[in-house]
Amino acid sequence: MNAEIVAIGSEMLTPYRQDTNSLYLTGKLNELGVEVIFKSVVGDSREHLTGSATLALSRADIVIFMGGLGPTEDDLTREAVADALGLELARDPEWIKVLEDRFAARKMRMAPNNAKQADVIAGATVLPNANGSAPGQWMSGRYDGRETIIILLPGPPHELKALFEQQCVERLRAKLPVQFIATRELKIALMPESECDARVAPIYKRYPDVQTTILAGAGEIQLHLKTRAASMEAARHRVDELASAMEAVLGASVFSDNGDSMEQIIGYYLQMRGATVAAAESCTGGLVAERVTSVAGSSRYFLGGAVVYSNELKTKLAGVPATLIHEHGAVSSEVAVALAEGIRKRCGSTFGLGITGVAGPGGGTEEKPVGLVFHALAAEDGTSVVERRFMGDRKRIRWYASQQALDMLRRKIV
Predict the structure, then answer these.
(1) How confident is the model at residue 207 (pLDDT cuts 50, 70, 90)?
(2) Of 170, 188, 325, 349, which residue is the least packed, with the fewest Cβ within 10 Å?
(3) Rounded CA gap, 286 and 281, in Å?
(4) Distance (Å, whole) CA 204 – CA 6
């Protein structure tokens, strides 16, 4: 069965609030073998809510509405779903008593508008809310000729999560066919999306039962694989088989097959080999160091380094000869090599990274344009250097430059 999640609240259509409940619900539904096929956010308009509910009910087996169950005039979920179903609302006297007792226990008088929280759609089951005054509602039966499940949940995350786990999970499990969802995620470094797809498309087309999604980010491609089967073993076997075939054609460009970040992978291999690294960064301004140290325990393999933006500090902190900078310029392969070798020597690390380039938006020339970056990796057996030209704004160029430096290290130590 497939599901649609409808998040309700005008505040989530502003820059200040975002829907996070749907991420939690998607994970829980996936555990039950349910795939979420649509998500939407709707403001507090009865007309818009009714339209969204009607559309969701026409295309999903399970529809979950989140929010809009409060006591105020703009809480309209119950009314809109009832409109979409062509059903009436009736006030539940038992829940009215629950609400009155809740307020009495706090020595407060219940406002008249709280009573609307006891309005229940005809045929729905009230789902008690131990953490709030708005109960949920559950409906199941045939709608438009097929079996449909409708769930209304309160919006506050602590209320939604507890109510869903206590009141909905077992109800869903009893209704759903036994299915399991397995996923895999491959991450590929510094490969154009078009090239990646050209390599793997002939493979994933042979697996129509596995959903393959390609996402392009700064300096990496992500391949998300997902399938459903009657057992978790069968589902995992299927995605693992496809992932292995993809890795075979993508080769060393794949840096993670379980969703780990570049920083995590580097940390894993450095620790496994008992190796350390230090970095001398110019145009990346410490971004490599920030990324590496974002992983807990990185002090075991990252010794430190220096942000050497000025020519003087390139000499003072990384030992780059001033004559070398004068002869070749600060942005050059020679200076990158000197940075890597100098920081490795001064820190006593196994590896040294040196990065220098033009991040922009100004400072570029015809000979050395914006986006030109030199990366060097120094090791006991010698120093390698890579010249790259990255497109984009300053932030993007700096991130790509850090990704290239870390990928050089990864390929060296794997």
Answers:
(1) very high
(2) 170
(3) 6
(4) 31
The DSSP code sequence of 277-323 is EEEEESTTTTHHHHHHHTSTTGGGTEEEEEE--SHHHHHHHH---HH
**Both structure tokens of 284:** 């990346």
CA angle 399, 401, 406 (to 5 degrees): 95
Q: What are the residues whose beta carbons fall under 8 Å from the beta carbon of 109, sequence distance 6 or more? A: 103
In this predicted model, what pLDDT tens digit does every residue of 95-154 receive, in sequence order? Answer: 999 899 988 998 988 999 999 999 999 999 999 999 988 999 999 999 888 999 999 999
Q: What pLDDT, on the 0 to 100 scale, is given for residue 62?
A: 98
To the nearest 10°, the Cα dihedral for 12, 149, 162, 82?
60
Q: Which of 132, 237, 254 is nearest to 190 (CA)?
A: 254
Over residues 216-270, the pLDDT tens digits come to 988 999 999 999 999 999 999 999 999 999 999 999 999 999 999 999 999 999 9
Radius of gyration of the chain (CA): 28
Q: Which two tokens stand for residue 337?
A: 């090599």
Quote the distance between the C-alpha of residue 313 and its chain's center. Answer: 38
Is 315 in contact with 322 (CB distance < 8 Å)? yes
**What residue spans of 176-213 are helical by DSSP H?**
193-204
Record the tokens describing residue 41, joined without a space. 């956010």
Two tokens at 324?
């070398």
- Better pLDDT: 130 or 353: 353
Note if the pTM is more than 0.85. no
Q: In b/e form, how buried is each residue of 246-264, taking b as 16+ CB within 10 angstroms?
A: bbeebeebbbbbeebbbbb
Instruction: Name the nearest CA neighbour of 8 among 134, 183, 175, 146.
Output: 134
